[in-house]
Design goal:
Blueprint: H1 2-14, E1 17-18, E2 34-37, E3 43-47, E4 52-57, E5 63-68, E6 72-78, E7 84-90, E8 96-100, E9 105-109, E10 117-122, E11 129-133, E12 137-141, E13 147-152, E14 160-163, E15 169-173, E16 177-181, E17 186-191, E18 200-205, E19 211-216, E20 228-232, E21 237-241, E22 250-253, E23 259-263, E24 266-271, E25 276-281, E26 286-291, E27 297-302, E28 307-311, E29 316-319
Parallel strand pairs: 1-29
Antiparallel strand pairs: 2-3, 3-4, 4-5, 6-7, 7-8, 8-9, 10-11, 11-12, 12-13, 14-15, 15-16, 16-17, 18-19, 19-20, 20-21, 22-23, 23-24, 24-25, 26-27, 27-28, 28-29
Length: 322
């Protein structure tokens, strides 16, 4: 009897669950650019070109809250300690938005260019929010939405940014890698990604602060493969990895720093030394990827409006795909 009960429990745990996201009807393709797990582990924020920010319960993946935010949500970042989300948009009148999800209050932050932006992140203390726009500038705000500073990277755009985990320093990516020290209000030397002209889409500091990783677009017309690249803090190249058949769109480190998740035509897991640990090719190209705070689960979102939940070994737990 105990053996049968054990088999039943294992079967129930291993079954893939079908979940419903209740996306609005649309005559255009649905792209979910962002999936972000809250620091308390209770919620997952989903955004894309669906004119809304959706907050899912991480327990049963049902939609618990929605916020009307127009056009395309490109990035969502939870505040590390407060019930607050920062939401970046592009081609939208809403620009940059702060969402208090307990008070259900939206604060629209002025100053973003009409083209919007894609780089977004809180520093480790949550005192400063950095927003990188599509014109190459970085805007720095307080948690209350006050503009603290604006600087130009000299790049055409700021596609992604990542704060150093232990000091107020940013790495941003576009055609090259720019680094900015907020406390000293100064830029560090530019890092050239590769000899070929390519665009980088993502960057992520390792939790140790000893190195960071960038992912680029490649150039398929010129037969330049997308590359995942590991860099020391001073900009020395450690590893250059050619694996993906599509551009690297997003990178997120597990909380303990043991595993890097990347999104492209597959969800892949990498070690801190650049070793491929696991991969699952997906039907759609992926955009969003993020870890649960305990590092035991992973959420992804992509080009067909699907949201999926995975174990840390990339076994699929739940999905909105039919």
């Amino acid at each position: 009897m105990r053996f049968l009960i054990l088999l039943l429990l294992v079967s129930l745990f291993s079954c893939q669950r079908q979940v419903t996201l209740n996306l609005p009807a649309s005559d255009r393709p649905v792209y979910l650019w962002e999936a972000a797990w809250s620091p308390d582990g209770k919620y997952i924020a989903i955004g894309g070109n669906i004119d809304t920010l959706r907050i899912l319960s991480a327990k049963d993946f049902t939609v618990v809250k929605t916020y009307a935010i127009h056009e395309t949500i490109t990035k969502v970042r939870w505040h590390p300690t407060k019930p607050l989300l920062a939401v970046a948009t592009q081609t939208s009148k809403d620009g940059l938005v702060l969402v208090d999800y307990e008070a259900d209050n939206l604060q629209y932050i002025p100053g973003a260019p009409p083209s919007g932006g894609r780089g977004l992140g809180w520093n480790s203390t949550g005192e400063v929010l950095a927003f990188g726009d599509n014109e190459g500038d970085i805007h720095f705000f307080s948690a209350t939405g006050k503009l603290l500073r604006k600087v130009s990277t000299g790049q055409k755009t700021v596609i992604d940014l990542s704060w150093h985990p232990k000091r107020n320093e940013l790495a941003t990516v576009s055609e090259d890698i720019s680094r900015y020290n907020y406390d000293q209000d100064s830029f560090l030397p530019i890092i050239k990604d590769r000899p070929e002209e390519t665009l980088m889409l993502c960057v992520a500091w390792h939790p140790s602060g000893e190195f960071f990783v960038s992912g680029d677009y490649g150039d398929f017309e010129k037969d330049y493969p997308p590359l995942l690249r590991y860099w020391t803090a001073d900009g020395t190249l450690l590893h250059s990895i050619e694996r993906s058949k599509a551009e690297y769109r997003n990178l997120r480190w597990s909380p303990d720093g043991s595993t890097l998740a990347s999104s492209s035509e597959a969800v892949r897991l990498w070690s801190s030394k650049g070793e491929l640990l696991a991969e699952q090719v997906t039907p759609d190209l992926l955009w969003g990827v993020d870890w649960s705070p305990d590092g035991k689960r992973l959420v992804t979102s992509g080009d067909v409006g699907a949201v999926s939940i995975w174990t840390q070994q990339l076994r699929l737990i739940a999905t909105t795909e039919e």
